[in-house]
Design brief:
CATH superfamily of the domain at 6-197 and 234-260 and 299-320: NAD(P)-binding Rossmann-like Domain
Number of helices: 14
CATH class of the domain at 6-197 and 234-260 and 299-320: Alpha Beta
Bound molecules: nicotinamide-adenine-dinucleotide, 2'deoxy-thymidine-5'-diphospho-alpha-D-glucose
Radius of gyration: 20 Å
Number of strands: 12
Distance between the termini: 43 Å
Oligomer: single chain
Order of helices and strands: EHEHEHEHHEHEEHEEHEEHHEHHHH
Helix content: 40-55%
Shape: globular
Length: about 375
Amino acid sequence: MRQFNSILITGGCGFIGSNFIRYLLEESDFTGHIVNVDSLTYAGNPESLADIADQYRERYQFEKADICDIKRIDQIFDQYQIDCVIHFAAESHVDRSIFGPKDFVQTNVIGSFNLLEIARKHWGVRLSPIKEDLLFHHISTDEVFGSLDETGYFYEDTVYDPRSPYSASKAASDHLVNAYFHTYSVPITISNCSNNYGPYQFPEKLIPLMILNMLEGKPLPIYGDGKNVRDWLYVGDHCRGIWRIVRQGKIGETYNIGGNNEQRNIDLINRLCEKIARATGKHPDELKKLIAYVPDRLGHDRRYAVNCDKIKSELGWEPAVDFDRGLDMTVAWYLSHQEWIDQIRSGGYQKWIETNYDAKSSN
Ligand code: NAD
Ligand code: DAU
């Protein structure tokens, strides 16, 4: 099993990154140091880790930095003697990529390229046998494989067929990561995961958006006919899977991660209506009346389904949280974190960033 001393996590103030840092410090066997590099876009909220920053002062460091700023990344690599990169930072929302693709190319492609360049520079070209004491793990998505009809699955060797600017930019970064392995022997692994849900997810994504709209009595927008299918995985299960790959995955390999849990959007929303009704004492029909069919997302992928035999058979990982329990935990989390929601809704956390970070860094 690989051991690391100093892990650079990019995008650690986002949804999955913050859950992963929490997992690493509170649940995993990792005993080293973490540097979280995040530029704090609209999706990055350092408040999601405020307690962690406090509690693990000795082992956790936050650096407000953009992965597109290659000099700064270089300096951070140097300063912290990074021996492992786990790369989450990205523009992650498909709808935003449709209306403004440029940021997606910038962060997801150029930013990933910068990180690879810096890793290559610091770690050097290492011809075989590749040493196991360094690793660049890239977090990617099942969306790079395109869209499925009613049958079939995405496998690790499914031909890439991205259809949105978001998935195209993620596919480009996957190719670069693989190229740096084959060309320069940078030790890499990649994971392609399905839709995550759970605490700290920004309420532009389906599940938190629907929960908050139900609580606020706002319309529940369903794109197209509502029959698009996604495979949902609890974020904590994703975190365990990533750590398993980082510790034991074969260098140069890609692993699919999924929930084996396909849901049509309309069924998922109806189920959430039942859960929120139970939690708030409202009648489910009152919530279901909020459902509003709206024009479809441009190029809306019909169905995603991920085959996870490889990670199961090679690394012994499979999801542990079933969908019903995961949704209950997620609903309970949003119901008990009103302050976090208010900050997001008001943009208050962005003002907090200006006071706490931008002021400091301009001193
Ligand atoms: P998110 O949007 O919640 O968080 C992204 C984080 O990256 C934010 O904290 C943001 O501030 C930071 N960031 C963005 N641009 C940056 C830059 N240029 N420099 C430094 N930091 C920057 O995203 P997420 O849902 O947590 O997704 C994390 C990763 O997982 C992404 O790579 C995404 O493609 C992948 N992924 C997400 C899902 C999902 O369902 N959410 C599923 C599979 C894969
Ligand atoms: O599959 C992994 C991907 O899952 C990740 O790579 C992305 O970062 C992540 O955002 C997610 O992409 P999706 O586009 O599948 O997620 P989203 O939550 O935006 O939408 C889920 C489904 O719900 C999709 O079919 C579109 C639909 N939808 C979404 C929203 C926000 C609606 O019907 N109404 C909505 O308001």
